[in-house]
Amino acid sequence: MIRKCLSCGAKNRVPPDRLHQGPTCGQCKASLGPLDHPVALAHERGFDEFVRGASLPVLVDFWAPWCGPCRIVGPELEKLAKKHAGKLVVAKLNTEDVPAVARRFQISSIPTMVLFRAGKEAQRLSGAMPANAIEAELGL
Prior knowledge:
By secondary structure, the protein is of the alpha/beta class. The protein has helices spanning 44-53, 68-83, 99-104, 131-138, and strands at residues 2-4, 11-13, 39-40, 58-63, 89-94, 112-117, 120-126.
């Protein structure tokens, strides 16, 4: 994953297995801070590397741009990403762009959110719901 330093603007590669460590900028050594926004997963290979290698639980939102409920749940997932930064990573996968991953996980309706722990599916939720309901269902 590439993270931009807020201090100097340098782009930093942060391996998924280091997300829990509070990475620093390779150029100016400033803290990059915890990941506090959803990450887009745009390729099958990138999805696999990210989810399998992440040192934190990953909540993946399977969505599509034409889906009204998906647009409703988007801001709720942003709230979760901010609130649980450093403890949970929120990722988004557009099922139109990466249909092979959606098929592999048998995503039949969207939005569907899948929580991965140590690279394995732990829980699954479907439908638009507020952040507090997602937290309650997942036990966050």
